[in-house]
Write the structure tokens for this entry.
Amino acid sequence: MSVIKNKTFKQLLWVGMGSIAMFFAGLTSAYIVRKAEGNWTDFILPEWFWYSTLTIVLSSALLFVVKYKIKKNQSVSALLFSVFVLGLLFAYSQLNGWKELVSQGVFLTGEGSNVAGSFLYVITLSHLAHLIGGLVALLITVINAMKGRYSAVNYLGVELASIYWHFLSVLWIYLFCFLKYL
Amino acid sequence: MSDHHKETFITKYIFCQDHKMIAKQFLITGMLMAVVGMLMSAIFRVQLANPGETSILYNLLPGSWLNEAGVLNPDKYLALVTMHGTILVFWVLTAGLSGTFANFLIPLQIGARDMASGFLNMLSYWFFFVATVVLVSSIYVESGPASSGWTIYPPLSALPQAIPGSGTGMTLWLVSITLFVVGSLLGGLNYIVTILNLRTKGMSMQRLPLTIWAILFTAILGVLSFPVLLSCGLLLIFDRSFGTSFYLSDIIINGEMLHNTGGSPILFEHLFWFLGHPEVYIILLPALGIVSEVISVNSRKPIFGYKAMVGALMLIAFLSFIVWGHHMFMTGMNPFLGSVFTFTTLLIAIPSAIKVFNYLATLWRANIRFTPAMLFAIGTVSAFITGGLTGLILGDSALDINVHDTYFVVGHFHIVMGLSAIYGMFAGVYHWFPKMYGRMMNKHLGYLHFWGTFICAYGVFFPMHFLGLAGLPRRYYTNSAFPMFDGLSDINSIITFFALAGAVVQTIFLFNFFYSIFKGTKATQNPWKSNTLEWTTPIERIHGNWPGEIPSVHRWPYDYSKPGADEDFIPQTVPLKEGEKEH
Amino acid sequence: MTNILIALVAILIIATLVQITRVSELLSELKNQDVNKVTDKDNKTQGVLMLVVGTGFMVFVLWQLVAWNHLLLPPASSVHGAQIDSLMQVSMGLILVLFFILTPMLFFFATKYRGRKNNTAYFFSHNNKLEVIWTVVPTIVLTGLIIYGLKTWDITMNADTTNATVIEVYGKQFQWTARMAGEDNLLGKSNYRGVTSKNALGIDMEDENAADDKLAREVHLVVNQPVLLKFRSQDVIHSAFLPHFRVQMNCVPGLSTKFAFTPTQTTTEMKEQEGQDFEYILLCNKICGAAHYNMQMKFVVETQEEYDTWIATKITLKEKLLTQK
């Protein structure tokens, strides 16, 4: 029964991530189409976004360690909490990135703004919004781990939170490269 | 799973995780919204037939929608057509159709206890419910509900100065649709994962009823296309509320010069129709799936060309992603792009034709039992033929020049959705009512409902093709501003007559439905002598669907009138006889 | 009072339905039958209804085709429009033929194969040959239709505009304004930021091409002279629909769109054919707000002399902005 539950819940998550990917596909297609029409002020991605990338990649790496440890029935609550903290750091770096953009004169809206900047904010904001969902999921796993809910044979919650978190990392890398190079 | 957790009223009827109850929640909500949507159409049809006059029906509207003489205000006419379209496309034909039948039938027809996640499923209904509350409340805000057409093109939908409904009403519309889409996605996830993973022993994909195949493709369409509506709407929210210029540029509205530059409304149209077109197939495919089942059972014959039918569904689903531009032929797009979309659009006619021919072949040399469900199934095929054929005109870009946004389009999409898909929904309700409620709907009332609806519906929508070919645009408050349309007022009156008559006929259905839930004659376990698994469950529904083990499946669902059999049907659970070959 | 009446009527309808249901149930009880079982008699009745209503439907459609034919738009008054009309005739012919074959077939099968107690259906689950036939044949027909359609589209959209008279059609809530390009056949540049009460279309008067542009509230065209319409919008999406010429093009704020065509029938000629009330008209065909239903502009097609007389009465923008406050 729980074998089936493992399988179906993961598939539910995968299909859901497929939907989220389509949402970003919509935004990035709009970006491409609009950029091709001209009147597009190029921007330089803030340095803080590099730190974002670093943080989130690191957090994903940690999750691999979590998986390794949990399969050996070891406690993972501290590690999970570290991932959560790294997630918060990601959010912090995003906020700083936006501040940096503002100081560069790249605005979401208003006098002196250009649609290129608007897209930049909307896309990164959307990613952050989905990341908040990931933070919630991680927090739940931290609490459950502290309660001793996970073992080598039962760690579906951690798996699901991890898969989603890796998705957010990959999505960020895609968006980062997209915004940087396209 | 005989996990009989103690059921309270709340867990049984309200926050229920049982797919059958969730299905009924979708059905009832969808039906109630259909009444609202239909009343709206009755009201604006009266305005069109009697422009500049008042009417009793206007009493249903908030007072501020009428002028001192009791005549409907022009911008509120647009509010009515907008809300009518929104309610019928999304609330009735998507949630009411898929939400009901996917939820009800998937576990029952594949042999599962429930959906993969009852919790997500329950959430999907409650997102839908809240979306409904938000949408209905938007009708009563002071500036009125969204009024820029269900297609909400900016700048009209972005600027309250352009039309009052684009203020608070439009904001609520966007909130509502966001909740609606999330609810739909939660449902869609479940449908796909359940069908792929929770089939009972012996239920291979090739033994699935066509209804399930149709729902599977519908769900895939939904999870891939609905999110793009969200991204489209997000950019609109930013333009409306945060002063961005994704869709807005070079605008002076009501004397006010707006700061936006660089935006393009056409970008909105691309994103919108990328969902918008698959959406109409999300509406149609489940109806066609239901019809395949109902026609087969009531013809006592296998559905003709099972594999071709699955292939046609797949091809329609795939092609539906690459035709969206046919809604945009007149936007000034590069003519080459227009050619591409004409090509892909006319291609969709091929799998559609295959389905029609297969339905006809199923009826050939059948032994037809005319249940009300069967009548509606045949009605679906008729409307699919009629409406599908006019699609060939609209899909041809050169011809679209003179019929785009005219009543020709209105006729076309109402016949394929308002007739074909709704008839499929009716067929489903009449056919599965015994399974849903353990009682039978009254057959005579069903007959009356069908013929009344069939006649009135064609009476409403067939004449519209002529209005369109006479050049009459859609979304016009009245046709009396142009002398060239004076000759069309008789047709308008005929249409309104049939519309009002058709609306009255629906009361027969509503009465029959609700009366039969409580006072209908009790059903037997398999009243239609059908082969599919849902009819092997007990008449009084239970959690987990089957009291003991879930039955295994030994054959496909279409062994009707198989030579050598004792009866004219062999349920899927019956093992093959000695020497019997599986189809 | 009327509300009470409506409520009474509604109650009456429901009461009637209840009675019908009760009666049918009682009758079946008397006959010791299941009230909702579909009998051979039911099948016969419904089968006959299929035939009758099906025939009625065909008659209804034919009647509409005959009775309302005169209400349809007259033949196109433009060169490309005649091509579109031919394509339309072929396409309509095709779909009507298919409609009148497939729909009667549906109703005929429904009648002929209505169920009878001792009848057995024919177990005919598939036939690959048939599938191939009814896939290949529609494909061939559609390919033909597509090619014809794309050819017509190409002729329409890629018309030669080298000698076309340029006219701008400017849409806003809820009126149209036309701008003739003057002797140089070049329109002056425009910018929405230049719109004032005097300069309603925001023309850049620094642009030398703008000086001889002329504004008007109706458009006059010379018969058989190609014209290139350029469209702009001030506020929301409108659509310039000229049904008699088979012309339609969205007017999108922030973009400019265009449509070229050659009118072939003068207004006078059309008045002789269609009646003295006839006028060519431009209507708005994209929902644009409350008065969307009344956003119109007259078009007149006339001889060169008539046109010259008319255009002489219009002042140039340069004069207009000098003389008017």
